[in-house]
Amino acid sequence: MSSFALLLGALALGYLFANRQWMPSSAPTVLNAWVIRIALPALVLVQIPKIPFRPELLFAAAGPWMVALGACLIVPLMGRMLRWDRGRTGAVLLTCGLGNTAFMGLPMVQALFGHEAIGTAVIADQLGSFMMLSTLGVLIAAVFSGQQIQARSIALRVVLFPPFIALIVAFLVGAIGGWPVWIEPVLSRLAETLTPVALFTVGFQMRFGDVWRLRTPIGAGLTWKLLAAPALVLGAGAALGITGDLRDITVTQSAMAPMITAGIMAADAKLDPPLATAMLAAGIALSFLTVPLWTLLL
Questions:
Q1: Residues 26-72: tens digit of each pLDDT
Q2: Which member of 11, 29, 57, 92 has the greatest number of CB atoms within 10 A?
Q3: In sequence order, what are the beta bridge partners of 258?
Q4: Are 170 and 44 in contact (CB under 8 A)?
């Protein structure tokens, strides 16, 4: 209960600060920089060296890929049936193909499964969601907005992303036996800031004004992201014989709300920005109900 109180409290405080204008509108840029460049890399550096590599862990990385590739098949069909334009289809595809497995996923997995589950959740985030955002996400934004893409720019974005650099370092540290005893406590203290700062930032950026007006595309997209996609991953786990915490954590990460960064990417690419923002707000709010329900089901 204390973990969920922290989640909801940080989210509510962010929303309150935005509505009261107690912080400048540019605050999320600064807070996101802390999360992406300090807190998340510190968490990766602490958790990954502790995970004994097993081939089954590839399922954790594959879960978000299944969600995104499934969306690439389902969402364009939805768009044709509901007569969406390219911008609307691209916005739904980006937001509901990519999950919020870092800012919301890591804190929620910790709350639901305990601190020892974070390592598996980080693998799902870094090798799954982040890799897709930097490759498939860039491709989707370019295709649906008419932009051109370059393979070199995508490769550089992946290689220079701080959490990815931390991931490589963490694997090397794990291979040589872990961190010296005096380094890990420092990294752990920095990593502890991820949950409150990330959720505060999410709350600060939540907007509900267009949710009702755009209820049809939001309902269609979130039906996939919050219900059908995790069911697909659960079915894949059953087919592959994946059980226990690995299955449960992977399904839970696959059930997370739409990714905030993907929504920002959709808006920057002029892919129906009001829909992208409203999809984030509705998805984040609903996921506080649907994600625990998936955990109970599992």
A1: 888 888 888 888 988 898 898 888 877 778 889 999 999 999 999 99
A2: 92
A3: 99
A4: yes
